[in-house]
Design a protein that fits this description.
This protein has about 280 residues and is mostly helical. The protein contains 13 helices and two strands, in the order H-H-H-H-H-H-H-H-H-H-E-E-H-H-H. A hairpin with a 5-residue loop joins strand 1 and strand 2. Helix 2 crosses helix 4 and helix 4 packs across helix 5.
Length: about 280
């Protein structure tokens, strides 16, 4: 089976371990639990099915049962910490701890690349700017970014984008996009997208205050709808978003980097049928 360092979900790793052992020998959930020292024969199956979480004391027991030692044990323990995190801040902390450990052991975690890319708005901006500003200095690129950005930040961002294979640096000191999408696991992508949306919303607020109406377009609708209508609207938004991507891809001479946010969110709690009749 794949090494633990290729997993982003500790439950999936445990499930794969169980399936691998079951293929090669008589192996049951009861046997797995017994190897790990648990009294309940169904506990580890419940963990893998997502019906309960692996406890902190249980991490070392399960790791030992799966013969995980050294960095593999540390990685598995951090995977459990990430998978059991209660909120975004805990998930971010666990992911960054994973990335630090992986870097020390020269192992790349694409989820960490995805998180950094979306966490810092400078990354997608520089990724768009660098190819259209051939041989520009770090300071020249920084001067084009309207949010406060230093030459050192641009330098570090370019180094990260090249290392993460999101930009390619050519022999003539120019950059080009690799066309490689930023990928991550199903556990991490919702986290990084939420982070990106928060950062870009902050930049949108700055644009309202600082940019002229000729350079920006903000509009909004306050409306009362139901779930069926909401689903229909979000489908139309997705169609529109894809159309915008097609239009942007047709641009042959980029001279500026824009961010477009498409948002629809609730302003009230749901109104029950009883409350509606009272109205």
């Amino acid at each position: 089976m794949r090494p633990v360092t290729e997993y982003q979900d500790y439950r999936q790793y445990m499930q794969d371990f169980y399936e691998e052992r079951k293929r090669s020998s008589y192996f049951t959930w009861r046997k797995f639990a017994s190897l790990a020292g648990f009294a309940s024969p169904a506990y580890l199956k419940l963990v893998c099915d997502g019906k309960t979480s692996l406890s902190k004391p249980g991490v070392a027991k399960v790791a030992r049962a799966m013969n995980l030692e050294g960095f593999d044990f540390t990685y598995f323990a951090l995977l459990v910490r990430f998978g059991n995190a209660k909120n975004d801040s805990e998930k971010e902390a666990a992911l960054m701890a994973l990335e630090r450990e992986a870097r020390m052991n020269k192992i790349r975690i694409i989820d960490a690349d995805a998180f950094r890319y979306y966490e810092d708005p400078t990354c997608p901006i520089v990724r768009e700017l660098a190819p259209v500003m051939p041989r520009a200095t770090f300071g020249e690129i920084a001067s084009k970014i309207r949010s406060e950005t230093t030459a050192a930040q641009v330098r570090d961002t370019l180094q990260f984008l090249v290392k993460a294979d999101l930009l390619k640096k050519n022999a003539d000191e120019t950059y080009e996009q690799t066309q490689k999408a930023v990928k991550g696991s199903k556990e991490t992508i919702p986290l990084v997208i939420r982070t990106m949306n928060k950062k870009m919303t902050e930049l949108a607020a700055r644009s309202i205050a600082n940019d002229s109406v000729e350079e920006r377009n903000f509009s909004g609708i306050t409306m009362g709808i139901d779930k069926r209508t909401y689903d229909r609207i979000t489908r139309e938004i997705e169609i529109f978003r894809k159309k915008i991507v097609d239009i942007a891809n047709e641009c042959q001479k980029i001279d500026q980097v824009y961010q477009m946010n498409l948002q629809i969110f609730p302003l009230t709690d749901k109104i029950s049928n009883i409350e509606s009749r009272k109205g």
